[in-house]
Amino acid sequence: MIEIFNIEKQVYGEFNGGEIIENKPIGFPHEKGGANAYSNLFYWAYAKANIDSTIGLHPHKGFEIMSYVINGSIKHYDTLIKKWKTLEKGDVQIIQSGHGISHSEAINKEASIFQIWFDPNLEKSIFQKPKYKDYSSRRLISNGAKKNIIGNNSPVKIESEGIEVFELTLEEDYVIETNLDQILSIYILNGDLKICNNKLKKNDFVKIQKMNKIKIKINRKSKLFCISSPLSPSYKTYIS
């Protein structure tokens, strides 16, 4: 089964009067549009800064939050490390918010990021100490067209069950093999392609489940950001 959410069907958001704009393939439960939270994927936003702009200090609790720098650079501050740190294109930041942490992001002009919230079993995580770690893109493992971000011997570690995150840069047709007990989520960063005969474009979001092979036909060099997650996590999630 394939569900497609183009940018018009996703949730729109903004900060600081439109200085930073977002489209959210998975919005918060109260927001209309996009996919509802599923598996242990709670939230997913693509954000881009039109000018240098800062999202002020705000709290998080329980969730594991991954920020991935798609273009440009950002700065990050939180109440654990208590200093600003710079992240460049391809870098990854993991916040395990535990019993509580607050952070702030400064996104430079034309920079873009993903921010994705994973559910690591909130019944346990809200009692744990918060943790923060960032990872340089140089540490991430590439295998041909595939760059492993979480899983498959990547140094990036999280507690949320069964998560694999990877980026594909494709110049020719490709097949992703998956299992019936997994959900594959794909965000099209750029390109011209078809997935299982469905024509897709930049910023389209695709949710695929109960399929063993995902056939991708490439018409022009394309970049895809992918997350594999369990169809049914072994623990109760926030939305279950």
Task: Walk me through what this model shows.
- The chain is mainly beta and 240 residues long.
- The chain contains 1 helix and 20 strands.
- A hairpin with a 2-residue loop joins strand 13 and strand 14.
- The longest helix has 4 residues.
- The model has no long low-confidence stretch (mean pLDDT 95).
The sequence of SSEs as H and E is EEEEEEEEEEEHEEEEEEEEE
Q: Tell me the number of helical segments per DSSP (H or I, 4 or more residues long).
A: 1
Structural class: mainly beta
E-strand count: 20
Low-confidence parts, pLDDT < 50 over ≥5 residues?
none
Features:
mainly beta, 240 residues, 2% helix
Brief summary of the model shown:
With 240 residues, this protein is an all-beta fold. It is 2% helix and 56% strand.
Strands, helices and their partners?
Layout: E1 2-5, E2 11-15, E3 20-26, E4 41-49, E5 53-60, E6 64-71, E7 73-78, E8 85-88, E9 92-96, E10 101-107, E11 112-118, H1 122-125, E12 131-135, E13 141-143, E14 146-150, E15 164-170, E16 174-177, E17 182-195, E18 198-200, E19 205-209, E20 213-230
Antiparallel strand pairs: 1-19, 2-3, 3-4, 4-11, 5-10, 6-9, 6-11, 7-8, 7-10, 9-12, 13-14, 14-15, 15-20, 16-20, 17-18, 17-19, 17-20
